[in-house]
Amino acid sequence: MHTGCYTALITPFSGQDVDYQGLERLADFQIANGISGILAVGTTGESPTLVWDEHIKVIEHISKKTKGTCLCIAGTGSNNTLEALSATGHAHAAGVDAVLLVDPYYNGPSSIEIRKEYIGPVAEAFPDLTVIPYIIPGRTGAQLLPEDLALLKDRYPNVSAVKEATGNLDNMKRTRQVCGKDFMIFSGDDALVYQMMTDPAISACGLISVASNIVPRFAENLVSLIAQDRLTEARALMTELEPLFNLTTVVTRESTPYGEIACRARNPLGIKTAMAILGMPSGGCRRPLGRMTRKGLDHVLAILKTVQAQTPHLLAPIAEFFGVDIDARLNDEALHRHLSYDD
Predict the structure, then answer these.
(1) How far apart are CA 154 and CA 148, in angstroms?
(2) What is the Cα Rg of the chain in Å?
């Protein structure tokens, strides 16, 4: 693995089938804009709702597409170690550069169990494949702790990186302390990448990004500027990109006959809605994810309109690559109606 920005690529759907033609166009867009690598079948690619045959086929497509152009990471994690081993075997045969193993969700193993019964067996079975634990307790309800990560790193040389999405800076600092200076920490949170890369107690090396689905060139540039210690330029670019980082989770207050409730539209709903507005092949989300509320859609539109008004160069590569008129798409209500619930 290398430092840089890796796109957690959207899986586009046509109806409820994977749109493989659209998938390849999205991959081509990333490659044309200089991304360091592509993650196939992560959370942003709707891994929880892809059946395993689709899962494997998407990885095969992206591995083939990236060969000789950028790196390919395959999401092969599960809450079932046998499934993770099988998926990793298919990814290895497809020629990926690394696999991403999310902490087992719902069944809630301890950190020791994650190390001994999950990451360890995969790392041992595929010693020539980089294995990246993905730590995101807010989604999984489980967490591989820094100490167990360090033990894995000590025993398995191929466990040489982590995707850190705890949002806990102290946890990240502890990871650096116990795993050493050469261990690679990737930010799993666009909004934290500047802080994680510039804090010497963390020294993150890059980003596995959601917003890069829309702005791959600029997400890659941000990581590169920070790595080169060109921090004034990096801060300026970070400020430009921050509105797009707010697409990852969109929270609104919604009225019901029984009172007001909070609606939390989680990744990838916000980013896929934005991509559909902009004319990129994204499709809707597969159930049980659905559509935005009208307030949520208005929030996404407001972000995109602000970006287009203040920093239109960020969206210009989309217009050029996909042949769309950004301003027209942002202001055509007919294009937006199907993207939100009616009630």
Answers:
(1) 10
(2) 19
Q: Are 5 and 35 in contact (CB under 8 A)?
A: yes
Instruction: Please name every residue paired with 276 in a beta bridge, in sequence order, or none if there are none.
Output: none
- Distance linking the first and last C-alpha atoms of the chain: 47
Element housing 178 (H / E): helix 169-179
Lookup: tokens for 197: 């890369």
Buried b (16+ CB within 10 A) or exposed e, 328-341: ebbeeeeebeebbe
163 in catalytic set: yes
Is 97:73 a contact under the CB 8 Å cutoff? yes
Pairing of strands 37-40, 71-75: parallel
Two tokens, residue 89: 């075997």
Specify whether 134 is catalytic. yes
Helix, strand, coil tally for the chain in percent (to 5): 50, 15, 35
Q: What is the mean pLDDT of each run of 10 residues along the chain (343 residues)?
A: 91 95 98 98 96 97 97 98 98 98 97 98 98 97 98 98 98 98 98 98 98 98 98 98 97 97 97 98 96 98 98 98 98 95 88
Instruction: Please report which helix (H) or strand (E) contains residue 147, including its range.
Output: helix 146-155
Handedness of CA 255, 256, 259, 260 (dihedral sign): negative
249 in Cβ contact with 268 (< 8 Å): no
- Model pLDDT for residues 34-72, shown as the tens digit of each residue: 999 999 999 999 999 999 999 999 999 999 999 999 999
From 57, 163, 194, 272, the catalytic residue:
163
Which candidate in 134, 153, 194, 272 is catalytic?
A: 134
Phi, psi angle pair for 341, to nearest 5°: -70, 150
pLDDT per residue as tens digits for the range 111-153 = 999 999 999 999 999 999 999 999 999 999 999 999 999 999 9
